[in-house]
Amino acid sequence: MKQKKVRKNIAREGARAKRHKRRKKVMLMEKAAVTLIAVIALAAVGVLAVKLVPEIRISRKLNAASTFMEEQEFEDAIASCEEALEIDSTSVQAYNAMAGVYLTKEDTDSAEQVLYKGWETTQDESLLQYYCTVLLNEAVDDINNQKCTLNTMEKCVEVLEEDRDSEDVFRLLDVCYERLLEDEPEQTGLYCSVLADSGEESCGYEQYQNLMTRMMNVYEANPSEELKTEIGKFAVPDSSEMWLEVKHLQDYRNLLVRAAQIESSEKLKQLTACIDKAIQVQDYFAQAFTIFESGDFAPIREFMNSSEYITVRDEFIAGTMEYWEGETYIPVSREIMKLVNEEGSFKFSFAGFEENPDTGGVINVWGTKQEDAGVQRVCISYEPASENGEYYPHTTYEFIYLYSNVKIGGQYVPQMNYRFETRVATHEGTTTQLVGDWGGEHEWTTEF
């Protein structure tokens, strides 16, 4: 009996051990499963944190910007866009949103800067197109509001540099040409605008040259018939009259030569020849200006009797002078010149005191027939700069080489001699000092 009882107890213990082992195994499997699920969950959260959180944060910032926009709190809207870009500097949506804020507050310059920076950072073509559209829309506004300037043209050139196939930019350039180079020069200030009634002066030549250079650079990198036509047009003014500062003559000449290599025309050739003549005149009379400004006038006798000066005088008298326009007393100054366009035929003249009271001095060529006993006089005069910016007192130095009587030994003997006359005009009148046989052995002086 005892043996039977022992065997039963052993059997029960064995069964319990097996059940305990099975439960332990199940528990281990359950723990393993929970651990695996937890690991998978953590991995998924990690992936989402990497992939979704920046986009969510950017989205929240841009939503905030949109809300600020609705409330017209523009600075807060801009700040939200900037915060979005701090999260991701390549966010196209953030650049678009910020540009939109600036455009809404009518700050187009900032909008353009944001879009261009965005394009440089991301190379996203949509931002570049948006940038070009803003520029062209601004140019259209300038034109519609009758405020077309070189800045308007510059907007078109900037678009041209980024989008060379834009048809809109060529249409706008055509309008800019009409407004800048076909309208009255007083309204444009393209080369140099002199307002005779106020004495004010403005010059946009350097900006014009910069824009022309950029257009030619674009053409040379990627030639097109449309751009060739624009360059040929913009090189030649179609206004009947325009002003140009003398200091820009050589630069303008170089620009015309380069433009002619792209699109030459008879007008362009005529204008280049006209500018060449103006440069030649300036170079020649530089010597005379040096003499007059030195205060020692004696060397002017040799200058005025040189073959070059006599040729200038004779061509004006005969009406055969090319390109240089003038009658009787033809001014030469070193500050401003006038371009006259008569149906594609160009002429120039230099501004005298009436047109430019602030001149540093004016030489006058006497291009008129004045004979003494059949001998043509040689004459030249000089008006120095005004004192203290006022016309009066106004001084004129006049030099004449003529055939006239010279008192020798109590008798008048006709011979070639020089006269030097100094006139000083004031509000009250004019006083004159005349030196006869100037520089000769029978020199005499009188005043009246």
What structural class results from the helix and strand content? alpha+beta
Mean pLDDT: 87
Identify the strand order in the major beta sheet. Answer: 4-7-10-11-12-13-14
Shape: elongated
State the helicity in percent bands: 55-70%
Low-confidence stretches: 1-7, 32-51, 195-199
Would you mind describing this structure in some detail?
The chain is of the alpha+beta class. Among the domains are: 100 residues, Tetratricopeptide repeat domain (Serine Threonine Protein Phosphatase 5, Tetratricopeptide repeat, Alpha Horseshoe), CATH 1.25.40.10; 167 residues, no CATH class. Helices cover 56% and strands 20% of the residues. It has 15 helices and 14 strands. The strands form four sheets. The chain has a seven-stranded antiparallel beta sheet with strand order 4-7-10-11-12-13-14. Helix 2 packs parallel to helix 4, helix 7 packs antiparallel against helix 8 and helix 10 packs antiparallel against helix 11. The protein is elongated, with a radius of gyration of 43 Å. The chain starts with a helix and ends with a strand. 28% of the residues are buried. The N terminus is likely disordered.
